[in-house]
Design goal:
This protein is of the alpha+beta class. The chain has one domain: FAS1 domain, CATH 2.30.180. 34% of the residues lie in helices and 17% in strands. The chain is built from seven helices and eight strands. The strands form two sheets. The protein has a four-stranded antiparallel sheet. The protein has a four-stranded mixed sheet with strand order 3-2-8-7. Helix 1 packs across helix 6 and helix 4 packs across helix 5. The longest helix is centred in the first third of the chain and has 21 residues. The radius of gyration is 16 Å and the shape is globular.
Length: 220
């Protein structure tokens, strides 16, 4: 049932994502938070997040704390759908902020969706890929905030800010104890992910933060 709900949302999200990224030049923050315009010195570097993710090649390893699964998910989507909105991750001149689930985060998601335990990153990736390329694309787009380069320090000053993602859905910044950043997604029943590695690719127009769980664009 959880897989069905996630898959059913995919077509709507990816269609919305194409429209969202057409106008991604402005900051995509909305709602009740204190910082709809991100202050500070503009980032000028143009190294893309796709280049950062792909720096160690397309394979898998035994380090569950890195980002091999999200890297291979991006590759799979762009191989199947070269014009997918996900291609923005390969354009370092387009400002955005991405939240990157660790490989372990994807293992948690795969286990939750299927009830199975996965011993290797490759097995987790195959389980995620089996959801269908449109679903993988939709989940990736929910992790991208177009038009805004949000470093960790700025995010910590932005408690309760609602961010509009490339899918058209929203996530909310939640600051705990002044230094812990959580993200509130569309699933109220599951634990919210925390940022476990901030400021990946800092100094460039595309920045990322590693997170402990996959953001869920629907209540599973």
């Amino acid at each position: 049932m959880k897989v069905r709900r996630l898959t059913a949302l995919a077509a709507t999200i990816t269609m919305t994502g194409a429209l969202m990224l057409t106008g991604a030049s402005g900051a995509s923050a909305a709602g009740s938070g204190p910082s709809a315009h991100w202050p500070g010195r503009p980032a000028t570097g143009t190294r893309s997040l796709a280049a950062v993710l792909g720096a160690d090649g397309p394979g898998f390893d035994r380090n569950w704390s890195d980002y091999d699964i999200v890297d291979n998910a991006v590759r799979a989507v762009l191989t199947a759908k070269p014009t997918s909105p996900v291609k923005v991750l390969a354009d370092g001149t387009t400002p955005l902020t991405a939240f990157l689930p660790t490989d372990y985060a994807f293992r948690r998601l795969a286990t939750d969706l299927t009830g199975r335990h996965y011993a290797s990153e490759r097995a987790v990736f195959e389980a995620v890929a089996s959801l269908g390329i449109d679903t993988v694309e939709a989940v990736l787009l929910y992790h991208v905030v177009p038009g805004a380069t949000i470093d960790y320090r700025t995010a910590l000053r932005s408690d309760d800010t609602r961010l509009t993602t490339a899918s058209g859905g929203t996530i909310t910044v939640a600051v705990r104890s002044g230094s812990l950043l959580k993200l509130v997604d569309a699933d109220p029943d599951d634990a919210n992910p925390s940022v476990v590695r901030p400021n990946i690719n800092k100094g460039n127009q595309q920045i990322a933060h590693g997170i402990s769980q996959v953001l869920r664009p629907v209540n599973l």
